[in-house]
Structures are given as C-alpha cells and as structure tokens.
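Reading a protein record of the kind used here takes only a little practice. To see the layout at work, look at the sequence and tokens printed below.
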Amino acid sequence: MSGDIASLIELDSIAQRDTHRTAFIGHAVIAAQCWIATEADDGSPAVGYGVLNQTFFEQNFVPLIVVREGARRKGIGIAILRELASQCRGTKLFTSTNASNTPMRALLLKCGFVESGHVDNLDEGDPELIFVKLKTA
C-alpha cells in the first residue's frame, strides 16, 4: 500500500510539492477509492490513477484523474474514467475541472459527460465547471 502511494506521488507533479495532495492520495489509497493504471498487468510502474468517492453532496464523484506526462494522449485517461464509471453505483457520476483545462473538458465530453453547472471564486478568474454523466438503465 505504501508502495502504491509512493508511486502515485512520483507520477503526480502536484503531489511532489503539495502536502495536501500527498495526504489526499494516501487517504484515497487506504480507503480503496483509488484505481491505478499501469502499462501492463506485470507490475510495471503506474502511468495514471483516478479517485472515485462520494464527497460531492453524497453523490459519486471523480475528484482527480492524473496521467503521467509522457503517457498522455494515449487513451489512459479515458480508460481510467471508464473504469471509475463502471465502479460507481447509482445513476449519476459527477466530476469537475477548471474552465481553462481544455484537455480534461474534451476528455469528459468524449466520455459522455455533460456540463451541469459551475462554481466561481475557487481559482481566481478560472471557474470550476461541474460535469455529470447519467447512467442509463
């Protein structure tokens, strides 16, 4: 478990300098809310990870997806998001991203998420956009 946490911190440039992100990763791993993507099923290093929890008004929520910089644009983010969606129970899956994060916004739209609202004043001049994916029966 501590090896997982260390490998996620190693691939996450924000966690390397932000103790809150490091603590978040540790909590997610311990709570079994973290899914790790590797290049193969042979124990190779993590290339990305995602977290699924119920912290958004007690709804299924993806607060974080991280893909190693050298592994981006290869479908890993899509695979992580699809796995998280398959794990959630209920009919709605929420996530959010800054308005300025055009790669994440494109990923969400590609995966069937639709914009559901926004929150101002979290990051100055860069609203947080809320997205939802409604699961069909």
Remarks:
- The chain has one domain: 37-134.
- The helical segments are 2-11, 19-30, 76-87, 102-110.
